[in-house]
UniProtKB/TrEMBL annotation:
<keyword id="KW-0067">ATP-binding</keyword>
<feature type="binding site">
    <location>
        <begin position="97"/>
        <end position="98"/>
    </location>
    <ligand>
        <name>ATP</name>
    </ligand>
</feature>
<keyword id="KW-0594">Phospholipid biosynthesis</keyword>
<dbReference type="InterPro" id="IPR000829">
    <property type="entry name" value="DAGK"/>
</dbReference>
<feature type="binding site">
    <location>
        <position position="31"/>
    </location>
    <ligand>
        <name>a divalent metal cation</name>
    </ligand>
</feature>
<dbReference type="GO" id="GO:0016301">
    <property type="term" value="F:kinase activity"/>
</dbReference>
<feature type="binding site">
    <location>
        <position position="31"/>
    </location>
    <ligand>
        <name>ATP</name>
    </ligand>
</feature>
<keyword id="KW-0812">Transmembrane</keyword>
<feature type="active site" description="Proton acceptor">
    <location>
        <position position="72"/>
    </location>
</feature>
<keyword id="KW-0808">Transferase</keyword>
<feature type="binding site">
    <location>
        <position position="72"/>
    </location>
    <ligand>
        <name>substrate</name>
    </ligand>
</feature>
<dbReference type="InterPro" id="IPR033717">
    <property type="entry name" value="UDPK"/>
</dbReference>
<feature type="binding site">
    <location>
        <position position="79"/>
    </location>
    <ligand>
        <name>ATP</name>
    </ligand>
</feature>
<keyword id="KW-0418">Kinase</keyword>
<feature type="transmembrane region" description="Helical">
    <location>
        <begin position="34"/>
        <end position="51"/>
    </location>
</feature>
<dbReference type="GO" id="GO:0005886">
    <property type="term" value="C:plasma membrane"/>
</dbReference>
<keyword id="KW-1208">Phospholipid metabolism</keyword>
Length: 128
């Protein structure tokens, strides 16, 4: 490891949270999907308060929302790295991006199913 990198790492120790928040901010600023997912999460959480979810329901809901954000962040990190490493067309670049995007899709489908299982019976009960 170069001495310059070691120095930078030493300086960063102890203020890791600031850098982590910087990472969240990067994704917020650059990824439209992250904003859409954030808005959806806020709506679902408000709906959760409205329907007075049980602790277990909150746990499932928050867990699935968290997984969507985590995969979105990792997808964004992979995209940045791949764009830097492969500025031109390369099958591996496409594969890595597709797999990373696939992980977000799976997380989003899981979250949608969780939301469906929690909210649909409550909405049906409210209507009928
Ligand atoms: N360097 C590359 N080489 C080969 N295929 C690529 C390359 N860059 C992108 N692709 C293909 O194009 C798709 C879209 O790439 P892009 O960089 O636009 O990602 P994205 O998922 O649309 O990201 P975002 O919209 O969040 O910027 C990728 O999933 C991949 O299949």
């Amino acid at each position: 490891m170069s001495s310059g990198l070691k120095e930078t790492k030493k300086k960063k120790k102890g203020i890791g949270l600031r850098y982590a928040l910087k990472g969240v901010n990067f994704v917020w600023a650059e990824e439209k999907n992250f904003k859409i997912h954030s808005l959806s999460a806020v709506c679902v959480i408000l709906l959760g308060f409205l329907f007075r979810l049980s602790n277990t329901e909150w746990l499932f809901l928050m867990f699935s929302i968290t997984i969507v954000f985590v995969t979105e962040m990792l997808n964004s990190a992979f995209e940045s790295l791949v764009d830097e490493l492969y500025p031109h067309y390369h099958p591996i670049a496409g594969k890595v991006k597709d797999i990373a995007a696939g992980s977000v899709l799976i997380a989003a489908i899981g979250a949608a199913i969780t939301g469906f299982i929690i909210f649909v019976p409550k909405i049906i009960f409210l209507i009928f």
